[in-house]
Every structure is written in C-alpha cells, then in structure tokens.
Amino acid sequence: MRKLFSLTAVSAAALALAACGSADDASTEASADTVEMPADSALAPISDAPVADPSATATDAPEAVPAATATAAGDAAAEVAGKALEAAGEGDAAE
C-alpha cells in the first residue's frame, strides 16, 4: 500500500511540474534585437548646451513671515502645549 501511495504521489508531482512548464525557447527572448538602444550610443558624450527655463526663477519664492507674527505664533503654540500638559496632569502650564 505504501508503494502504491508513493508511486501515485510521485506521478502527480511530475504531472503538476510538467503542466506548469513552458515550451518556449528562452534564448529567443534574450536576443540583441530586442534591446532599444545599444549601450555605446547611450553612453555617447552629449554636445548640446543646457537651455535656461524662464519659468524657474528665484523671485517666485514666498515672502518671509514678519518676526512679530512668528513670535506670536510660537507663543500661542507654547500656551496650547502647556494647557495640554496641564490637562493631562504631566506638568504645569508655562504662561
């Protein structure tokens, strides 16, 4: 009985592997005519000069935030953080 089960299992495995295989020749897919461009032409030196992009200017940067506004925003954030810590019971609020 063991021999019959072993023979059946080996036969099933062989058929499963044969069914998953492909009969295509892999060497035809790797031929040089499927390459888009040869490496020599891809590595050739470039003689064209770069072109300036008129839309890429440094003047498009946003204006700086005034120091008073930034300080007020920092103070407000510190006050909110202090209240959150106080509410959580982890410290005293610094005002």
How many helices? The count is 4
* Helix share bin: 40-55%
Which consecutive residue ranges, at least 5 long each, have pLDDT under 50? none
Structural class: mainly alpha
What is the CA-atom radius of gyration, in angstroms? Answer: 36 Å
Main sheet attributes: strand count, strand direction, barrel closure: none
Could you give the count of β-strands?
0
What series of H and E elements makes up the topology?
A: HHHH
How would you characterize the overall build of this protein?
- With 95 residues, the chain is mainly alpha-helical.
- Helices cover 52% and strands 0% of the residues.
- The protein is flat, with a radius of gyration of 36 Å.
Please name the defining characteristics of this protein.
mainly alpha
What is shown here, in short?
By secondary structure, the protein is mainly alpha-helical. It has helices at residues 2-20, 26-29, 39-42, 67-88.
Q: What's the SSE blueprint?
A:
Elements: H1 2-20, H2 26-29, H3 39-42, H4 67-88
